[in-house]
Amino acid sequence: MLKPNQIFVFGSNRRGRHGSGAAKVALDKYGAIYGQGLGLQGQSYGIPTKYEGRAIPSDTLELGVISFYVDLFIRFARDNPNLEFMVTAIGCGLAGHKAEDIAPMFAGRSENVKLPEEFLEVLLGREVPEYIQRTQMSFKKGIK
Fold first, then answer.
1. 25 Cβ partners below 8 Å, 6+ apart?
2. Taking all residues of the chain, what is their mean pLDDT, rounded to a whole number?
3. CB of 10 within 8 A of CB of 90?
4. Which contacts of 105-113 are long-range, i.e. CB under 8 A and separated by 24 or more positions?
5. Choosing a second label site near 33 at 20 to 30 A (CA), which of 23, 24, 98, 129?
6. Domain that holds residue 107
7. Residue 141 lies in a domain
8. Looking at 2-11, 36-45, 67-76, 135-144, which range is the least confident one?
């Protein structure tokens, strides 16, 4: 359960078809809007990682395109310091990218952006200490 000032950040497709994975969680629990693939939606924020939302490899967005959307998100987070953004491992589930490819896109994030453990491990270059895990409130696989 999120606090009122926390935002669930999930990987989406540009069509906003929130049918599975973290996008489905965002739709069911955090106010994501079906048909909106980008931006703030209720208590969630979508970052596109796929084109149409089809379960085929060619539907995955290129890393440069995802990086563009991550940059937009980071600017939004900086402009909203009163909110805390809980980022899931976007692009690493249905989109099929690796944490090593996506995590560096978040290197310049603001303090109110909390990353999943997989991304922190890449950015820190080692296993994440427990105290950092607690302060990041990282989301694990099998989001509830």
1. 8, 10, 143, 144
2. 87
3. yes
4. 105/66, 105/67, 105/70, 105/71, 106/70, 106/74, 108/74, 109/74, 109/77, 110/74, 110/77, 110/78, 110/81, 112/77, 112/80, 112/81, 112/83, 112/84, 112/85, 113/9, 113/74, 113/77, 113/85, 113/87
5. 98
6. 6-136
7. no
8. 135-144
Tell whether 142 is covered by a domain: no
pLDDT over 60 (residue 6): yes
Q: Is the pLDDT of residue 131 over 50?
A: no
* pLDDT of res. 33: 97
Residue 62 lies in a domain: yes
Q: What is this structure's pTM?
A: 0.86
Say how far apart CA 79 and CA 82 lie, in whole Å: 9
- For residue 29, the surrounding DSSP H or E stretch is helix 21-29
Q: Which tops the pLDDT comparison, 79 or 126?
A: 79
73 CA to centre of own chain: 9
CATH of the domain at 39: 3.40.220.10
Q: How many domains is the chain partitioned into structurally?
A: 1
* The predicted structure's pLDDT at residue 59: 83
